[in-house]
Amino acid sequence: MEVKNGAIRNLAFMVIAWVRDIFVYVLRTPTRLFFPVESWHLLRANNKVMAMRSTRSRLTRAFSVLLLGTVVVSSATAGTFETDSSAEASLLKRKVRAAIFLHRATFGPTIEEIDALAAEMVAKGTRKACSDWIDDQLALPASLHEPLAIDMYQGDGLVGDESDGDSVWIQRYKFHAWWHNALNAEDQLRQRMAWALIQILVTSEDGAGFNDRNLGNGRPTGQNLPRWLGVVDYYDTLVSGAFGNYRDLLENVTYHPIMGVYLSSMRNRKTDGVRVPDENYAREIMQLFTIGLYELNLDGSPKRTTQGELIPTYDNDTIQELAKVFTGLTFQPNASNNWNTFWSGNDFDLPMAMYQPEHDTTPKVLFGGAYTIDDPQSDGENEIDEALDILFEHDNTAPFIAYRLIQRFVKSNPSRGYVRRVARKFENNGQGVRGDLGAVVKAVLLDPEAWRSVRIVQRRSPDRVIVTSRGTEYSRLREPLLRYAHFMRSAHPTTNYGGDGLFRIRPIDWVIVQESYRSPSVFNFWLTDYQPAGDIVSFQPSRRITNGALVAPEFQMKTSVTSNYFIQLFIWQLDSAEFNVGNNQPDKKFFFNWDAEKAMVEASEGDEGLVNLVDYLDLLHCCGTMPQEYKDKIVEIVNYETRNQTADADYSKRRFVGAALAVLASPFCAIAE
């Protein structure tokens, strides 16, 4: 066994250990599975996440056989697809490539999207087809969330503010709009880029007043919006700027009142001899948004002194001096009452304004004297511009952003060469422009290293395609939100709510432990350099890895408890093929359509239909990386456990649900190659 190729997958097996019993229980139970969603709150509150413990004694351990032989595999054959011709095999190779690419570039592909891109690959070549797909996405208009949320609650007869009454959780509409766009928006790459950027330029709804249902006061009477929409407006700032320039995005973020409140630059005042400017935003814009803690080479590797020590990018003096730059910012003034422009505003939708009397006008000396900010007119906005220019042009910013975007889209452990190539695109998009995010994300997705996560070989006699995974250095754990979003998108959901086709999905982080607008801290859901316990900590990776150690950030929120919740969600929704939008609205539902999958089971004699279904699910959810032994065992166990149910009306459904659960709960679905 080579740890480098198995470490992340080993961890995935450890945290889904209960699934082997659950899987067989699903196949044997003809009625509604487990407990209704209403019970989850009680289970969570009492920490009784092992609700099935009382039934374990009567459950077979057959599912554990599925796990054997794959836990310790290094660069093993991940999947074999038999085909009827070499032409079909050639097309299937493209489908695997298309699935991998679209899993990265969207919130998860439908089978129709995979087929369409694969056809383009056949016609144009793989790289050209993907490049054209990206260009098409870059050209699409932005699907924004704030106007959609307003349309939704107004369509439901609500006003959006405190007049709707305490019984209406009006703030839920920000989640409704987010999920609708994630699942339905045509500009999928822009939506994915915004989701990546919110994990760098982090804010959260937990800020003071962010769920306030009162109206803002920065606009003329009758035009003000509820303050809870502020976090939606901030997210839309990232959506709008997803393919723009990072310097512009930094400025828009700096002036956004949500960021101002979240990181304390709002109403940050100059010193009065006792009080000093708040340093929070000054620290985080350097540490988390631009240059990081230590000096970097262009390839993301840390620079060191002759004694081998890391070189800090800034010190406390620079933090204190930069904090002076970000003084004087406040809400836009109250449009109907300008008696005190520093203290009277409260509008989260309008950029902050500079209140010059509270701006520090003394010279600001940064980075040990390398820069001095001292505007001749002592203009606060000019000084902020100068500070942002310094950070944007810093040598660290290109590799810092490149590394994080690669982690969010492709792999947890990019090579130094990968980081260098993307950083160079950040420095120059080919037309002399620095910070072009559209060019950067294209470089991330089309880099040669992004295509090396699997090896796809076509064989003859018989015609088949063999997919081999390259292992831990080429993979990442899928974020639970992305994994669930793909489950939803792949199921062709529809809704009976509202009559407008808009998806009003409630926040679901209490099950999947991740949700839009709910990052637990400014450090995101996880640290970029997080290492879970186990083989990954002690293993020495190849020299091409930037920091000399393997990391797996998403495992910071992955536990047996969170995994159990996630599997229960799959079980309930696979079995019911529907869910409601909230416990107080039981008749307003979403419906999943798995008719094609169930028909696939019934289409052929013997095992052929089930074999085809498992191959289909492998391609759709695992990008063809599921080992053949695992797929064979799924077919064997599904057949065995449903052998006495052939006369049941839901026989094909149960076979589909069992196969789908085995695929969705597998490490090959959890790990993105």
From TrEMBL:
<dbReference type="Pfam" id="PF08811">
    <property type="entry name" value="DUF1800"/>
</dbReference>
<dbReference type="InterPro" id="IPR014917">
    <property type="entry name" value="DUF1800"/>
</dbReference>
<keyword id="KW-0472">Membrane</keyword>
<keyword id="KW-1133">Transmembrane helix</keyword>
<keyword id="KW-0812">Transmembrane</keyword>
<protein>
    <recommendedName>
        <fullName>DUF1800 domain-containing protein</fullName>
    </recommendedName>
</protein>
<feature type="transmembrane region" description="Helical">
    <location>
        <begin position="62"/>
        <end position="81"/>
    </location>
</feature>
